[in-house]
What we know:
The structure is a homodimer. In chain A, helix 4 links the parallel strand 5 and strand 6. By secondary structure, chain A is of the alpha/beta class. The radius of gyration of chain A is 19 Å and the shape is globular. At the A-B interface, strand 3, helix 3, helix 4, helix 5 and strand 8 of A face strand 3, helix 3, helix 4, helix 5 and strand 8 of B. Strand 3 of chain A pairs antiparallel with strand 11 of chain B.
Amino acid sequence: MDKKLILITNDDGIQATGIHTLARLLAPLGKVVVVAPHSARSGAGCSITPTTPVILEKVPSPLTSTFTPDDTSCCLDDIDWYTCTGTPVDCVKIACEQVLDSKPDLVVSGINHGDNASCSIHYSGTIGAVIEATLKGWPAIGYSLQTFKREPNFAPYCDAIVKIASHALNNGIPLGECLNVNFPEVDKLQGIRVARMAKGEWSCEWADASNPHGKRAFWLTGHFTNLEPESTDTDCWALEHGYASVTPIQLDMTAYNSLQMLKKNLE
Amino acid sequence: MDKKLILITNDDGIQATGIHTLARLLAPLGKVVVVAPHSARSGAGCSITPTTPVILEKVPSPLTSTFTPDDTSCCLDDIDWYTCTGTPVDCVKIACEQVLDSKPDLVVSGINHGDNASCSIHYSGTIGAVIEATLKGWPAIGYSLQTFKREPNFAPYCDAIVKIASHALNNGIPLGECLNVNFPEVDKLQGIRVARMAKGEWSCEWADASNPHGKRAFWLTGHFTNLEPESTDTDCWALEHGYASVTPIQLDMTAYNSLQMLKKNLE
Lengths: 267, 267
């Protein structure tokens, strides 16, 4: 049987420990090709690069020996590594036409430094790449970890990452859907919860940035609030209680329930 | 009764004729405040600016006298104009905390130069701003026109723009939903069609960009295909047949139909 083809990308850039961990974990499951932004592109959402050329480069493996899960070192030399100066979506688009010889069996993005639960999914470059892969008809998963530490301990999440990726490789994901997986920062996961997107909001989003030229300048920041903290079926609840959340995401954003009312009023 | 408060933004930047047209058309409906990117941010999606400060400036009206719908000139001096160096999403975020004194009754984004039908919605900065407004609980509409002309003739769309905006001002939009309105390039609209997002795909997305330093460089381009051309209930069908399309969009992307199957397999 042919080896499975697995494309890996992220939004934190090719130097991030999250993507190194994904590459190490998934290398035993198939032929891994990494096409990642050459530098961090956090908050890139589904943005693309329409106004400047994008540069694609094959690069040496950035893997060091600091963390290697058991029995994977054999496959690590077989990983192909590329950087792209565009966004995470551009990485998937350019992998499709300029890097991969065939359709991947799975696209994986992350592990993001910072969670992408609730409404944060809309801003996420990690999920942007996953949405692009889904638009191309490829099974895709985004992994994110609720910490901004540069070198977090990914060990508590390895089993869940491989379990969910193996599920997608073996069973596929329905066309037009993808998986958004988030991990809490814990020593040991309570388990996996399949959960819906919580209603949430960001507030207090701007911090004054003093500017020597007298302009009004601000840093984007913010405080996230889960607007339905009592609901036990959401991604935020799972994270707050030590579980990994798995949320199936659909790309058709049509609000079907509103079609008839609008037809009556606008047609 | 207090005047309605209308926030206008776009992704083509404050100099684009599309946003000038929106400002002129909506000024008679309320107090208009414009907070737009200081330069074009096409393809920005829901991206945000986490790594550099964003500058906010009050600027003089960029309106010229080239196109003024009847009886609106009286209100044009009352429009406040701001630029922001961030993305369309940043414009809405900064308007919320640093510009507006109260919650807007309506947020309008556009008129985009280029349509945002089908899957293009995911890449759209125009719709990014609309999604952000919706996350804040504000009724929001995105308008886009299927042309890349710098100075298209917006006259055929004025009645529909005002009709849809008035509908939203008078009736609201369900929480968590917004409207994505697209216009075909025509002399006269056939009418308005309330429509779902068509399944579509972009292909042939990279054109070689010669690079004097020997790097592999590419321009993002592409060809869009409507994957269900026979379906008469889609936004693409409406545009192809001379109608404006109005698509209600929901921000909860949870694929509810897949929750049970995943629970069985992953929990």
